[in-house]
Fold each of these.
Amino acid sequence: RYQSLAYSRVLEIHKQHLSPVHTAYFPEPLLLHQGHVEWLFDHEGNRYLDFFSGIVTVSVGHCHPKVNAAAQRQLGRLWHTSSVFFHPLIHEYAEKLSALLPEPLKVVFLVNSGSEANDLAMLMARAHSNSTDIISFRGAYHGCSPYTLGLTNVGIYKMDLPHGMGCQPTMCPDIFHGPWGGSHCRDSPVQTIRKCSCAPDCCQAKDQYIEQFKDTLSTSVAKSIAGFFAEPIQGVNGVVQYPKGFLKEAFELVRERGGVCIADEVQTGFGRLGSHFWGFQTHDVLPDIVTMAKGIGNGFPMAAVVTTPDIAKSLTKRMLHFNTFGGNPMACAVGSAVLEVIKEENLQENSQEVGTYMLLKLAKLRDEFEIVGDVRGKGLMIGIEMVKDKESHQPLPREEVNQIHHDCKCMGLLIGRGGLFSQTFRIAPSMCITKPEVDFAVEVFRSALIQHMERRAK
Ligand code: PMP
């Protein structure tokens, strides 16, 4: 433990010297000292089961011995080269990463964060298409840099300053909140309780959303567009899933207008969705550009953009793309070890098996409690939407969600939050979690719901 700074001093320093918008999840902020696989330890030695993995980032477990060993080895050899010099680890990593993507996605650009990756993807799309306009969903989160703020359509991140020129939001085909439901239409072991008139093999909701997409194309953007960004499942917006087949049709419409299709795999990539390594594969589409960050480095700051040789050429013939830290040997050593661990420990398969197990258990809680409106997701990317009641779908008031969240923490379980009103609990642990840990987490969550119902009844 770090004895040097008392909890009260940390709070004082935070107030004086750190960004005032860095809000803590809990009234008494959690001060962490150590992590071990899926466990975190605070300054008093209390143990928490980490079911949000540093916001969907620690993909293979905190301080994984193989990843640590790779970092330590490299630490003593060479930290930094900058992209003007070559290093075998960089080249090995680019080869390994590109082997995980289908043809023709074979050219890797290494950067340092998800926002940077999406900034670069925007530039690529514009350089390649010779157009400006880019479409993204309402509710999407693609970064907080001045460029990506245009793509991010979550109100609290927007600034009343000019930004995002050429970026147009379009309606999110959200099965749970949208006007057309879609009870059979999402790719999840758990279907929504929202009724719709679709048959299992015919999604009318999807057709309605495609009409909305066409409407954006004909009313809000130029005749030729640069591209379309989509997360395969929206993370920050509360694990929002689209009707099956939507992305496939949307990609075709974008390409008809000369645009390129970008899959933001920052949260969904690296096996988290279980059935596939990449989220776009679950939609049966082939993007032109894929961006990735977070889980790529298990918490080490690194990110990547992978694209086709043609698009890479369109960018590099127009500019000298340079990035001092992107793809430094430390990051590549870590990234390579992460890929090896995912494979050696069958973590994609574990995401599928343990994620499905958890979803089915949580669906029982949905049926048991009136305030659990929806349980959704795929693999180890799960959302639990809290509502006033199942009929209205109105969000459970924030103070009530806060209390349940806090109660879970007090019982040793850390989960995330998302959605426009912060009404959705998000679960995205390291991909190595086990079924007994899921049993513990679901039991804690159930106890928090029971406590809540008892408080309400008083
Ligand atoms: N894309 C998605 C889908 C994200 O969830 C995030 C981060 N929440 C980003 C991009 C931006 O990543 P970073 O914070 O590393 O800039």
Amino acid sequence: HVSVVLFTADLRLHDHPPLRAALDASDTVVPLFVRDQAVTAAGFDPPNRRAFLADCLADLDASLRERGGRLVVRSGDLVEEVCRVVSEADADEIHMAAGHTAFAARREERLRRALEADGRRLFVHDAVTVAVPPGTVTPASADHFAVFTPYFRQWDRLVLRPVAPPPRRVSVPGHVTGEPLPARGDVGGVSPALMAGGEGAARRRLTAYWRKGLDAYDDTRDDLAADTTSRFSPHLHFGTLSPVELVHRARKQGGPGADALVRQLAWRDFHRQVLAARPGAARADYRTKRDSWRSRRTAAADIEAWETGRTGYPVIDAAMRQLRHEGWMHNRARLLTASFLAKTLYVDWRIGAAHFLHWLVDGDVANNQLNWQWVAGTGTDTRPNRVLNPVTQAKRYDPDGAYVRRWVPELAGVGAPAVHEPWKLAGPERAALDYPEPVVELSAGLYRFRQARERAR
Ligand code: FAD
């Protein structure tokens, strides 16, 4: 009796219900990962995520080998490759985690049809890549929640499934083989300070954060320079950490830090249930009627200044440079840079979202597109017209300017608060800095944004 476990966005052995179920049902299993050509064709594996994925696969393979098994990697059309492996292994069961994007749903459906036509059974496991699957909690009169707070109230009352222990032994049929594992070193164009991927790195991060970090999370998570958020996001994206396990641990731990982390994990599920109900929101405005006036502006010079971190607004430039250098950006910085592009520069949010998706190692359709919409005011924010002021925000969340000075060396010698508004420096001091003037005056940006709104009314 042989089963295939298809790994997708769940590249771990801890708390892995599909693997558990396969091991319970079968003597041997084939742990399979398919590098789906459709993902590459859609441009969804840019260098940072491809490099991180290589780490994840290498780590998963090593952990399976420690248990007597190995990872089988194939490339091509996912459905065709799975069917090929299933027939080579003569497997009767295939286990995988549920995905929640339109792409994942279509792929799963094709796979189900192909396998069932061949007399095999596909088991799709819920609550592997999310803590609470879309559709589990719904409001009385709609198919999904459009507002976070009532969603969270219900979400937080749910009892989650127990955590599945990692397997002790995995035996893989010898004749089923794969291709060589991709290597991180073979990927070009990767951010120089990209985080290490893989379940090993994830578990080390988890242990370290629990020991030192979580307690202060609630107080310091908006402090840009302190950088005290968990950085679990790429691990959650690739599934090297389990959201169910994290919620269990945090609830057990208790306290303001753990509670705040649980709330953020609920945001992740919240956006997934929006996207599952409205798959089109990945591309088009979630609130199309109300916000048909939202910008479709494509201003090349403004966009380039934003993308390269040369807008003349230090906190924006620091954040945009961090994004390229690390493939990651602090949440507060994501809010500021997104608001700056979509509102102050009044550029189409989708242009910014695409730039983020290219660079972010945690780049994720649900989290990225829906957070962008939230900030742009086209999404689920209940105050869609607020505009974040990058100077006020910088003074609040980077009070002594350390974040700016870390990423914008041109301003390394400037103290706070001038470091957040270098245009206010005296003539000669300002002239000595090799740093651009603001691309737009904040009041002019605000005026353009408000005019557009008025015109639409
Ligand atoms: P922590 O603060 O430690 O939070 C723990 C976890 O909670 C995160 O890892 C994440 O999984 C989840 N989380 C936290 N905040 C949010 C949120 N607002 N929405 C959904 N989940 C959240 N997150 C991504 O994972 N991928 C993206 O592509 C992405 N794009 C974003 C784009 C914009 C414009 C904005 C404003 C936010 C975006 N986020 C995205 C959400 C958030 O910024 C990141 O999840 C967070 O900064 C990751 O750092 P962390 O793991 O240290 O977060």
